[in-house]
Specification:
Blueprint: H1 7-18, E1 24-26, H2 30-42, E2 52-56, E3 71-75, H3 77-92, E4 105-108
Parallel strand pairs: 1-2, 2-3
Antiparallel strand pairs: 3-4
C-alpha cells in the first residue's frame, strides 16, 4: 500500500494494513516500520503474535533496556555505495546500463516477526 518514507507516514499507513487480512507489514525502510509498529501496538495488536513488522536498512538506533528490536533487512552499505558511485562513471565513459546490479542482503530476525498464527 502507498506510504511515504518517514515514521509519521508509517504510523498513518498502519491503519490500512491493520484493516486488511494480512499477517505482516514489510516496510520500505526501518523508520516506516517503526511508525507502523507504534500505531499497530496502540491499536492493541500484539506484535509479533498478531502481526509481524519488518523494516529495511538496519538503521542504528539506541536500544533502551527492555525495548524490542526491529526485524529488518540489512544491506551491504559499502557495496551499495560503491555501485552507486561507479554507475555514473561507467555511463559517462559510454558504458551501457544493461546489466542488473545485485547487493548482498541479510534478513536479521529480531523481536518483531514470527511465523503467521494461522
Amino acid at each position: 500500500m502507498p506510504c511515504g518514507h518517514t515514521a509519521r507516514q508509517g504510523y498513518q499507513a498502519a491503519g490500512a494494513a491493520r484493516d486488511q487480512d494480512v499477517t505482516a507489514v514489510v516496510a520500505y525502510n526501518d523508520l516506516v516500520a517503526l511508525g507502523a509498529l507504534a500505531a499497530l501496538e496502540e491499536s492493541k495488536l500484539r506484535i509479533p503474535d498478531d502481526m509481524s513488522v519488518i523494516g529495511c536498512a538496519d538503521i542504528s538506533l539506541d536500544d533502551p533496556p527492555g525495548s524490542r528490536r526491529l526485524t529488518t533487512v540489512s544491506l551491504a552499505r559499502h557495496e551499495l555505495g560503491r555501485q552507486a558511485a561507479q554507475k555514473p562513471e561507467t555511463l559517462m565513459a559510454g558504458g551501457a546500463d544493461t546489466e542488473p546490479q545485485y547487493t548482498p542482503m541479510e534478513l536479521r530476525v529480531r523481536h518483531t516477526s514470527a511465523p503467521p498464527a494461522r
